[in-house]
Design brief:
Layout: H1 3-22, H2 32-44, E1 50-52, E2 58-64, E3 71-77, H3 104-120, E4 128-134, H4 142-148, E5 157-168, E6 172-173, E7 177-180, E8 182-191, E9 195-196, H5 206-217, H6 219-224, E10 231-240, E11 246-247, E12 250-259, H7 262-282, E13 286-295, E14 298-300, H8 302-316, H9 333-337, E15 342-350, H10 372-389
Parallel strand pairs: 3-4, 3-5, 5-15
Antiparallel strand pairs: 1-2, 2-4, 6-15, 7-14, 8-12, 8-13, 9-11, 10-12
Helix pairs in contact: 1-3, 1-10, 3-10, 5-7, 8-10
Length: about 400
């Protein structure tokens, strides 16, 4: 693969494509126009595609190389977030209250560019490269829907990337092992008995029970999990009461648990349920717990990771791989990791000089676009490294 010529040929195109998708974001599960635009670009380039997904508008591309060989799947997510954009740019979101604030517009443009590059070097591909444009990552439904429709059939390895504002442009985080957290969500509904504020002895107040439950939940991390195993338990929303002079008869606690290993994950779920029930009982209340495991943790297979690291050295240079700790953020790419050898990279796009200094999900989020073409090349080179090693 001629890195320099391909970089120069696609540098501006990947930026134009990113801006076009940035201006027309769609929420998770509603990416029908986004999918149609992706498919139109592929059709215009003479590249066959097929729909993928039982319920959602995924798009699958297959590039067959020369001779028999292994198959690797490259993936991009395509959904946006319910955020009103505050950037003043010509390609600002044209959809009120919706924004590509997590960089999925970059993922679309990088993977489309990777498809074009792979299609142009078919005679250098000793096997097959597949590409999936996946909806609904933000709600952890897209990967499962693609898998239900057989996207992993015949796939020997998988690679994905996420642009990452915390890393400087030109750097990539790609290490073996657990890299992103399993993401769980819980809701605790506490039921007591409401009544007049002047007659507490005739009521069962749900509010102090709620407060005690929140405090008791903090012991899951501080006293119940192995201190060398990362775990986050966050209460993000609480509701209780209807009026200043009415004792609350119900309350609700909503939160999330993030973990990197199955033992801690199991322990946290059991603890949340036990603490909710026992604390409620001590306050003469009852507690109902709804606990959902939204997505698995992202585990980077050592072999695929090694191919990606070598590709990063080739495309970005030998100093492009800083040692970075795992993040407790979640990604539904973890579902793929549980079924096939896979690796997931965090691709640096931070650069204060172009205002790319805001975190993911910020209403001012932006990226250093000049590095996006290298992200496309990194994906293709990783695929080539994998296929060449498995001829």
């Amino acid at each position: 693969m001629n890195f320099n010529s391909l970089r120069d040929a696609y540098r501006e195109e990947v930026i134009r494509t990113r801006r076009a998708f940035h201006a027309a974001p769609e929420l998770s599960g509603h990416e029908w126009n986004t999918a149609e635009r992706i498919r139109a670009i592929l059709t215009g380039a003479g590249i066959p595609w097929e729909p993928c997904g039982k319920e959602l508008p995924g798009t699958l591309v297959t590039i067959d190389g020369v001779g028999a060989g292994k198959t690797i799947l490259l993936r991009a997510d395509i959904d946006a977030l319910p955020i009103e954009e505050k950037n003043d740019v010509p390609y600002k979101s044209g959809t009120k209250g919706v924004m590509h604030a997590c960089g999925h517009d970059c993922h679309i443009s990088m993977l489309l560019t990777a498809v074009m590059i792979a299609n142009s070097i078919r005679d250098e591909i000793p096997g097959t490269i597949k590409f999936i444009f996946q909806p609904a990552e933000e709600v952890a439904l897209g990967a499962l829907d693609m898998m239900a429709d057989g996207v992993l059939d015949g796939v020997d390895g998988m690679f994905g990337m996420h642009v990452w504002s915390e890393l400087p442009a030109g750097q990539v985080s790609l290490e073996a092992g657990g890299r992103m957290a399993a993401t769980d969500q819980f809701e605790i509904t506490i039921t007591g008995k409401s009544g007049h504020a002047a007659l507490p002895h005739k009521c069962v107040d749900a509010t102090p029970c709620m407060a005690a439950t929140i405090m008791d939940l903090q012991t899951v991390v501080s006293r119940q999990v192995n201190p060398v195993s990362p775990l986050v338990l966050t209460v993000g929303k609480v509701t209780s009461g209807t009026r200043w002079n009415v004792i609350s008869g119900s309350a609700k606690i909503e939160g999330t648990v993030r973990s990197l290993d199955s033992e801690s994950r199991d322990m946290a779920e059991e603890s949340v349920k036990r603490i909710a029930a026992n604390t409620a009982a001590s306050y003469r209340c009852t507690a109902e717990v709804k606990y959902d495991r939204l997505c698995d943790n992202v585990y980077n297979d050592p072999e695929i990771t090694a191919f990606g690291r070598e590709a990063a050295k080739t495309i970005l240079g030998p100093d492009a791989l800083p040692n970075t700790p795992p993040t407790m953020g979640g990604e539904d790419f973890g579902f793929y990791c549980s079924k096939v050898k896979a690796a997931f990279a965090l691709f640096g796009v931070g650069n204060a000089a172009c205002n790319a200094c805001y975190p993911q999900h910020s209403d001012h989020y932006t990226v250093d676009e000049s590095t996006l073409v290298k992200g496309a090349l990194l994906s293709v080179q990783t695929a080539l490294n994998f296929l060449n090693a498995n001829k």
